[in-house]
Design goal:
401 residues, mainly beta, Neuraminidase, four-stranded antiparallel beta sheet, 1% helix, globular
Amino acid sequence: MSGGRRAAIALAGAAASVAAVALAGLPPAAPGAPVAEVAAGDGRGGVKKKSIGRFSSPVHVAAAPGVRALYVVEQPGRVRVVRKRKLGRPFLSIRGKVRWGGFGDEQGLLSIAFHPRFRSNRLAYLYYTNNGGNNVVAEVRARKRNPLVARRKTLRTVLVIRHPGQPNHNGGQIAFGPEGLLYIGTGDGGGAQDPDDSAQDRGSLLGKILRIDPRRSGGRRYTVPGSNPFVGRPGRDEIYSLGLRNPYRFSIDRNRGKPRIAIGDVGQSAFEEIDYEPLGRAKGANFGWNDFEGFKRTSFGRPPVPKHEKPVLAYGTHAGGRCAVVGGLVVRRSRGLRSLWGRYLFGDFCDGVLRSFVARTRKARGSRRLGIRVPGLSSFGRGRGGKIYATSLNGPVYRLK
């Protein structure tokens, strides 16, 4: 996720009106520290916390359709389950298959997505870096009568994204869209200035948003929808959007039947950017890297793209102690977070300050702090009932209330 001069950094509103409490006064937790549920103020200006277990470098949380549980992804290669505020048996461990270099590394197990028909087919998908340094999308099936435990022997490789040379810029997010297809965010392959021009190369899967149907079909490990923009044209059929540096976290906002994609694209040395587009308009869209960073033309792009989608918000990479954007999600009808409804929630790995702006497709407006800081911020996620979570590489998982 790091920029050329930020070698191994892994990941890179409403204020008092939000019913969440500020964490700025809390000391950073040590690796493996307890998960904490953050509640409203305790009436004395303090913070209510409940320790329910320990995580190792959590980087993602997700909910499975029809299951009353929260699934927490640990970067070293394990998915944990929180149910009834208790930490239970792991959903899955693939540590032996995952390359992870420790705290601050950009590789590892980076996200999980559950099939929309998980209740009947029990299929879940993982995105991780394998021992060869390549990024993998894999399928696993949960037990028929126990959705809290996966059958490891069902683990199946769906797609291998070659990632030669550099260990950084792996992307890491997978998510299902409203049409039941899997979207995959990939980094440009690492190195300063995208030396191979991978993000603009339609023959490469790097620096892109991909879209596939990940289920096995006949002898094929996955299929590509015929509506993808480069089917029958030069370029890899899996590509949905291109011109991204490191879209470590993106989300799909359902927005009352008008889906949009929100992408936090980590910058190099000048700007961090957030893109927010109607999902249909993102089809075939070029987001400009490495010819543009934020709103500015770079000195090293070749040649400049004739047309690209501009971000809705960009901020200086080194502004106020920030270094790497952590893309989030649009808050929709989450209990206790009324003042954030319709606002995009995001943060930065280095300062950990949570911020939000009104979600608009042309230009963000009303950007402001929430008054909450999560040290080592690594991701945001949505649980059952629209509950919003933030994870910290230091160990805790926080719920906003």
